[in-house]
């Protein structure tokens, strides 16, 4: 009875970190019998040494029984057989990559134990990787936030500059650098400008932005001829007062004398004698009547050359306004104050064609139907 053969040897154990294999020449003749691989491991995990007196790659001297001979296994891919390549320990030092020499790199290969077998990663390697990751994250954060920091710096600088400019301007404007040193009155013809400047002398020394308009108004109330006014600051030291004078329309006789009034009935001055250059007003109802308002409207609508010729202006009602041209005693019948501008044009044209010295009456109460007599 035939003796049973031993169990086949397990495949050679290879380092998973090194996967290079040497290809066996495909053209070489295959052996008639399989020989034991010198790297083969026995059942206990120990390498079997080649048999003494024999070559692991050649046939033995004695006959072999194919049924009892150990079987050698090779990794094959297609027709190409591969064997494990040389390990790092078999590689010359000069040709080894950095970090693979155990003697030169601290006694172990990264990721391997002291015996060259795969090992666990140490705490130092984990800390180093974590530090590298944190450094990379910080670099990314700095890179992505650099633009925002620059933008904030620009806005902050601009804001500080604007604030400094505003504060500097306000500080200079409200300081004695822009105090009033001179008051000038513009637009006064009948009004005494020097008297107005003297009345406003209290504003001298006040910063231009702090000039009190209520105090200016209180000072100008004493001048009836001032109808309105505006203040104009001219840095660094001048205050300009632009006044609009009231236009007197005539004088009203009263027990106190002759009072010069404007179209609003404001008394401008009172003299014992009729004022020169102003007509006498004969208006029923006084300055508060509708007749007086109509007289004022008519007088202001006339051209200056016709105003200068009027010596008397009268009205009993608002619809029968009339006046007298003193040089020729010519009467002008005006009627109501309606269409006063058109009536003034018609009268001026009629006086140019028919001078007043040959006319007794101009009736322009109906501007479309002029009557001259």
Automatic annotation (TrEMBL):
- Which UniProt keywords are listed? Cell cycle, Cell division, Cell membrane, Membrane, Transmembrane, Transmembrane helix
List the GO cellular component terms: plasma membrane
- List where the protein spans the membrane: 154-174
One BP term from GO: cell division
Please indicate which superkingdom the organism of origin belongs to: Bacteria
Give the UniProt subcellular location, in the record's own words: Membrane
Asked if Transmembrane is a keyword of the record, the answer is yes
PROSITE patterns in alphabetical order: POTRA
Give residue ranges for domain POTRA: 178-246
Record's InterPro entries?
FtsQ_DivIB, POTRA, POTRA_FtsQ_type
Annotated region (Disordered) at 1-71, 84-121
Per the record, where are the segments of Pro residues compositional bias? 1-11
Main localization of the protein described in the UniProt heading = membrane
Tell whether Flavoprotein is among the UniProt keywords: no
Tell me what this protein is called.
Cell division protein FtsQ
Q: Which organism is it from?
A: Microbacterium invictum
């Amino acid at each position: 009875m035939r003796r049973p053969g031993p169990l086949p040897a397990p495949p050679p154990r290879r380092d998973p970190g090194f996967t290079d294999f040497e290809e066996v020449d495909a053209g070489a003749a295959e052996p008639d019998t399989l020989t034991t691989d010198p790297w083969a491991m026995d059942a206990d995990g120990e390498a079997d040494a080649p048999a003494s007196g024999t070559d692991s790659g050649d046939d033995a001297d004695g006959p072999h029984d194919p049924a009892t001979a150990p079987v050698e296994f090779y990794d094959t891919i297609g027709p190409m057989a591969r064997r494990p390549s040389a390990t790092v320990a078999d590689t010359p030092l000069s040709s080894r990559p950095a970090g693979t020499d155990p003697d030169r790199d601290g006694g172990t290969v990264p990721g391997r134990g002291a015996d060259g077998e795969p090992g666990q990663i140490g705490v130092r390697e984990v800390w180093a990787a974590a530090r590298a990751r944190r450094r990379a994250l910080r670099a990314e954060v700095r890179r992505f936030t650099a633009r925002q920091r620059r933008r904030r710096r620009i806005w902050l600088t601009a804001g500080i500059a604007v604030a400094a400019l505003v504060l500097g301007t306000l500080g200079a404007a409200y300081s004695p650098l822009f105090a009033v040193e001179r008051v000038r009155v513009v637009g006064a013809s009948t009004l005494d400008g020097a008297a107005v400047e003297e009345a406003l002398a209290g504003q001298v020394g006040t910063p231009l932005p702090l000039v009190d308009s209520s105090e200016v108004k209180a000072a100008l109330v004493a001048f009836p001829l001032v109808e309105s006014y505006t203040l104009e600051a001219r840095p660094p030291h001048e205050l300009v007062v632009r006044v609009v004078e009231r236009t007197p329309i005539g004088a009203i006789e009263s027990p106190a004398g002759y009072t010069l009034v404007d179209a609003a009935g404001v008394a401008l001055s009172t003299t014992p004698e009729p004022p020169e250059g102003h007509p006498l007003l004969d208006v029923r109802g006084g300055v508060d009547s509708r007749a007086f308002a109509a007289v004022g409207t008519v007088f202001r609508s006339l051209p200056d050359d016709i105003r200068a010729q009027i010596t008397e202006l009268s009205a009993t009602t608002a619809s029968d306004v009339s006046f007298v041209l003193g040089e020729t005693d010519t009467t002008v019948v005006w009627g109501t104050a309606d269409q006063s501008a058109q009536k003034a044009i018609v009268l001026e044209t009629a006086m140019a064609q028919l001078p007043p010295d040959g006319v007794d009456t101009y009736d322009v109460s109906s501007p479309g139907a002029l009557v001259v007599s």
